[in-house]
Amino acid sequence: MAKPETEPDEISLRAAEVAADVTEAKRPQEQRRLAAAFARAASSSARVAGRGTRAAQRGAGAARRRVGAGIDWMAAQVTAMAPRLRVRDQAALRQQFPGQSADEIADALIQGAARAAGAAGGAVGVWAVLPVLPAWPAEIVAETLLVVGIEIKLVAELHEAYGVPAPGNLAERMNAYVASWAHRRGVYMIPGGVVVAAGSPLARQIRRRLAVRTGRSALSLGPLLTGATIGAIINSRETRRLGHVVRRDLRRHTLTGR
User: Fold this and answer.
1) Model confidence over 95-118: pLDDT tens digits?
2) Are 150 and 23 in contact (CB under 8 A)?
3) Against a cut of 0.70, is the pTM above it?
């Protein structure tokens, strides 16, 4: 996978850190607290930059016209964020879940990630709309990057739990897990490899996946807690679904070697 041309923005770096912290937090209250703190930081950064709700409203039409460029920007942030995610290897997982089988560890990982994604949707959705260039309000950017980080971390740790990590160095492995996230498949079952270039099938798949993901994040912008509740439910459901699909592929690969 090609190295992203764009360096990660501060929000992406922070999302990588918070995604790991939220996922590994033991209590739902702590998950919500961490996600809410991230939402506050994103909102504060937007205010410092002099961007407010009125600016967001004035720029709404222009933002819609910049959606394509926005997806490209978001894809660059995701691929730059991925190598910075804190991923537990097989030894660390077995130490944390002593005596448990790969399937049992996978169940725990999926459940934890689903709760974390739900906390992200519930927390980020309650904050005021503040714009972050190039296309979306800060809330949508923050929630999208946080949930994608949680899901990529889940994909990576499922591969570790089953003893079939992606090959290569850290950057190469994390790039492969981004591809796995985009295709909803285990690394060993991704069609066409993991090379990303402008117009490549994988690059297009990442953009499509992010377009869907940002649409779900926008649901969290509903009125007060209504939007937050919807965002939490959808995030939790979709992250759990991703985990089960990837686990199915990994179980098949460990049994058949294909």
Assistant:
1) 999 999 999 999 999 999 999 998
2) yes
3) yes
